[in-house]
Amino acid sequence: MVKVKFTSALKQFFPDLSAQELEGASIKEVIMSIESIYPGMQDYLLEEDGSLRRHVNIFVRGEMMVDRHRLSDTLTDGDEVLIFQALSGG
Amino acid sequence: MALSNQEKLRYSRHLNLPDFGIRTQEKLKNAKVLVVGTGGLGAPLLQYLTAVGVGTIGVVDFDVIDESNLQRQVLFGIEDIGKSKTTVAIAKLRAQNPFVHFIEYNLKLEASNALEIISNFDVVADGTDNFPTRYLVNDACVLTGKPNVYASIYRFEGQVSVFNWTNREGILGPNYRDVFPTPPPPGMIPNCAEGGVLGVLPGIIGSIQASEVIKVITGMGVSLSGKLFLMDVLDFSNRTLNIKRDPKNPLNGEKPVIKALIDYDSFCGITNDSNDTIDLSPIELARWRQEGQDFQLIDVREAYEFEAGNIGGQWMPLGELAASVNLIDKNRPVVFLCKSGKRSAQAIENITSLGADYSNLRHLKGGLLSWKDEVDSDLLLI
Hints:
The complex is a heterodimer.
Chain A: E1 2-6, E2 20-22, H1 27-37, H2 41-45, E3 56-60, E4 63-64, E5 80-85
Parallel strand pairs in A: 1-5
Antiparallel strand pairs in A: 1-2, 3-4, 3-5
Chain B: H1 5-10, H2 12-15, H3 21-29, E1 32-36, H4 42-52, E2 56-60, H5 85-96, E3 101-105, H6 114-118, E4 123-126, H7 131-144, E5 148-154, E6 157-163, H8 176-179, H9 192-195, H10 201-218, E7 227-232, E8 237-242, H11 264-267, E9 279-280, H12 282-290, E10 296-299, H13 303-308, E11 314-315, E12 334-337, H14 342-353, E13 361-364, H15 367-374
Parallel strand pairs in B: 1-2, 1-4, 2-3, 4-5, 9-13, 10-11, 10-12, 12-13
Antiparallel strand pairs in B: 5-6, 6-7, 7-8
Helix pairs in contact in B: 4-5, 4-10
């Protein structure tokens, strides 16, 4: 199981958003699990070709993910996955 | 330039700080910092950079003070409403510390002036409130070789980093485009005017930003270069993430393709072109109502805005529009409206992108602000 946390800014579109413990051996698998809990999240995070939208970033264990195109970065039990996005306010 | 005796007195709490002393204070005095944006982040940034004795501070903003600014922009008061932000800010900051030299830029930072302005400074602090200016500041800093101390806020969250900074070993750190290669499509991330911001948040995040500016100038401590600090004040969570340079960065990756500043509004998908097929002027809308024309009027603002003042119509906030699409008529004209005309134009894009077969959608150009100017000056808008 990996722990997935989200920027609270995403509550704008997913009001019931909260951290989740999910199965997933890669970032791609985790996003598919998230989609089943929060329908529409996949479209928000990914482009039509399946790559990560470029204003979104995902960190695993505090490190920036590597494969933004195929989302193949592997995950192991206990990893923390943080999903967040750019903010513009000042 | 050395410190005068009066300055030594003023900065005495710095002078007796371990590893600080006169040499470090002189670094602050000799530094030139450009603060872009005199809003929520700009207030603590400017006040602390002034207080600690940064020698030269450039202040950039084109806007005037609005009553809705006062909940977080603590440099300003009621008597300042309607006045230029840069002029009022500098008058207050001069009273705070007469040893600081201020340079006023009462203008919009744009591709045409950014390189020239930024090249006059050692460090840039980005406290702007929109994506086009954030990419402009980032790119201009990379092209001129200046460190960009970055912060941004939204609702209860803040982000801080030091971009494009070369450390003591001569290694250049990442910049904004390494973390967020391109901006979000318009409307995907709301700004504070639409989504709100906790009044104290810019005070916290802007103070951290000011602290990073001081560290970049003085070389003290460990900077946030190569790191992105995130904070959520609602659950008091914070984390520091490691970020690194992207070989594909178009500015300074392995194959740079951006050699000069670009059109950042267009880059961020913002167009100012009028569109006669969807734009409806306040006068036209008033005429439609007067003539009793059959159309659906939909207000896409947030609940608190609608409750404060509206001109009728159905209330469907932009964020919930997709879920309410079956309530939008197809057989008569539909007019969306919001405060400025931005969200209502976005509403049409959102509905159209759902693939639904609509050819009857229009929006109030200039929003209720224009309606207030041209039709009903008594309308209360927040």
